[in-house]
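pls design
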């Protein structure tokens, strides 16, 4: 959770479109629906850039593909 967002009690939902490379890494990450708070959007993008994915395959060969991911930022109650 971004520090600024925590201090200001921001919550939100970010929807991302991720290009998944054959090696399972994120090639590009695009915000398709913003939370309305750049700090939350940026944190979501940065988090996903560090994820490892299982790539799509054509036969036994890993290929490039796309994934959609929703990230919810919700403060603990």
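designed seq:
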């Amino acid at each position: 959770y971004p520090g600024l967002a925590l201090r200001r009690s921001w919550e939100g939902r970010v929807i991302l479109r991720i290009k998944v490379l054959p090696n399972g890494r994120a090639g590009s990450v695009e915000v398709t629906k913003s939370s309305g708070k750049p700090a939350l959007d940026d944190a979501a993008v940065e988090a996903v850039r560090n994820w490892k994915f299982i790539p799509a395959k054509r036969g036994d060969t890993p290929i490039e593909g796309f994934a959609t991911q929703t990230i919810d930022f919700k403060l603990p109650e």
